[in-house]
From TrEMBL:
The keyword Oxidoreductase applies. This is NAD(P)/FAD-dependent oxidoreductase. InterPro entries: FAD/NAD-bd_sf (IPR036188), FAD/NAD-binding_dom (IPR023753), NADH-Q_oxidoreductase (IPR051169). Belongs to the NADH dehydrogenase family. It comes from the Bacteria. One of its GO terms (molecular function) is NAD(P)H dehydrogenase (quinone) activity. Residues 6-333 form the FAD/NAD(P)-binding domain. Pfam families: Pyr_redox_2. Gene3D superfamilies: 3.50.50.100. Its cofactor is FAD. It comes from Gluconobacter aidae.
């Protein structure tokens, strides 16, 4: 291989940014490879916290990682854009033109050479072809979506406040994203209440959130005891939980269910199902499954091309399917960071990636939380309202920051967030 290998990492999520940062230290700093991260956004956030950005309970700039700043400090390059296709014969990726909001072209379509590609573009919600979802529902798949929902949420709250009316929100999907968003919206309204009372002389409008789950229980990936406890907690804070509620169609006023009933909602969020972004169909004819995930070998290389790897939510290991979680993405990024240098420099085959399940945590804002460990052990809830589980969820986020920033800068980020709680509103107001 060439003395200075060209490594392209497509997607700056949990897996992509972690890999770029680690390879920058091991290969970029020494000049053995040029590592380039490509993402259509300019900032990274930890995806398990997107529901907090959507509700407005997180808006601090410290909670975003700027790609340009991270690249300059960790020996890799960053280019904004979206990969439109991959030319495997000439070993090039083709980037779509970069446009302003009004359609003005900032950068024309570009072509970039590669020796190795790692695809880490994450996932999106899966509407399963349900009529009306694309036209009438919002999602929180990324930071842009989360911020767009928050803007709409705040404007509709203001409208309801002025009209002395309720704000109805319906969330489709009873997995961790939907459940945590439902709780976080109520937390946001509780925080904003005193601001409204003092600024306008009256309390905020009533929030009515309906959570629609097609299956028999929410949080199906967790033990039944957690599902039952989480539903009880949601109902306690005012969320209406409807299970066995399969959506047949969406329109501008709400959802029609398969049983013929109708759920009215001013804001409609689709957080059900998981599929890879549709762009994977244009990635050089790589084999994908029915949800658009790229089929990979156990060592995360494409089954069609050993120069192309895929990890995280957009990949699928046929012999050992894994859940679409940040935990899986982190472990796969670490695996490639450890073994890609030897493959690129010496041709040593990348070994299979073995996933070590460390359990899962769900945190319902400030209200409650649970952790489910391998082997069936569950902790959380009780008189402490899952304080230890909620703190563990927060510590996972802080651990991610430390991995990206380094130990001391990561701790300083934590300290900076704490200081700002004394001088800034704890919920987004503008």
């Amino acid at each position: 291989m060439a003395s200075r290998s060209e490594i392209l990492i497509i997607g700056g999520g949990v897996a992509g940014l972690s890999l770029a940062t680690r390879l920058g230290k091991s290969m970029g700093k020494s000049g053995k490879a040029r590592i380039t991260l490509i993402d259509k956004s300019f900032s990274h956030v930890w995806k398990p916290m997107l529901h907090c950005f959507a509700s407005g309970t997180l808006s601090n700039e410290n909670d975003k990682v700027n790609f340009i700043s991270q690249a300059s400090g960790h020996h890799f390059e960053f280019w904004p854009g979206e990969v439109a296709s991959i030319d495997r014969e000439n070993r090039e990726v083709i980037l779509s033109p970069l446009l302003e909001a009004d359609g003005t072209v900032i950068l024309e379509s570009r072509r970039m050479k590669y020796d190795t590609i790692v695809i880490a573009i994450g996932s999106t919600a899966n509407d399963f072809g349900t009529p009306g979802v694309k036209e009438h529902c919002m999602s929180i798949d990324n930071l842009v979506d989360a911020n767009a929902f928050n803007e709409k949420f705040r404007m509709e709250l203001l409208r309801a406040f002025a009209n002395n009316s309720e704000l109805d929100i319906a969330i489709v999907g009873g997995g961790a994203t939907g459940v945590q968003l439902a709780a976080e919206l109520h937390k946001a309204l509780e925080i904003v209440g005193p601001y409204n009372l003092h600024a306008f002389g009256k309390a905020p409008p009533k929030l009515h959130v309906t959570l629609l789950q097609s299956g028999a229980r929410i949080l199906p990936a967790f033990p039944e005891s957690v599902s039952a406890a989480a539903q009880q907690e949601l109902e306690h804070i005012g969320v209406t939980v409807r299970t066995n509620a399969r959506v047949a169609a969406a329109d501008e006023h709400g959802f029609t269910l398969k049983d013929g009933s109708y759920v009215s909602a001013k804001l409609r969020v689709w957080a059900a199902g998981v599929r890879a972004p549709e762009v994977t169909t244009a990635y050089g004819g790589l084999t994908i499954n029915r949800t658009g995930q790229i089929l990979v070998n156990p060592n995360l290389s494409s089954i069609d091309d050993e120069r192309i790897f895929a990890m995280g939510d957009c990949s699928f290991i046929q012999d050992d399917p894994l859940p679409a979680t940040a935990q899986v993405a982190r472990q796969q990024a670490r695996h490639l960071a450890r073994h890609l240098p030897a493959w690129i420099e010496h041709g040593q085959k990348v070994p299979g990636c073995i996933f070590h399940n460390k359990g899962a945590i769900v945190a319902l804002g400030k209200y409650n939380g649970w952790a489910a460990l391998p082997g069936g052990t569950v902790w959380g809830g009780g008189i402490s309202h899952g304080f230890s589980a909620r703190m563990a969820h927060l510590m996972l986020y802080r651990q991610h920051q430390i991995e990206l920033f380094g130990y001391y800068r990561g701790l300083m980020s934590f300290y900076s967030d704490w200081v700002e709680t004394f001088v800034r509103p704890s919920v987004r107001l503008d």
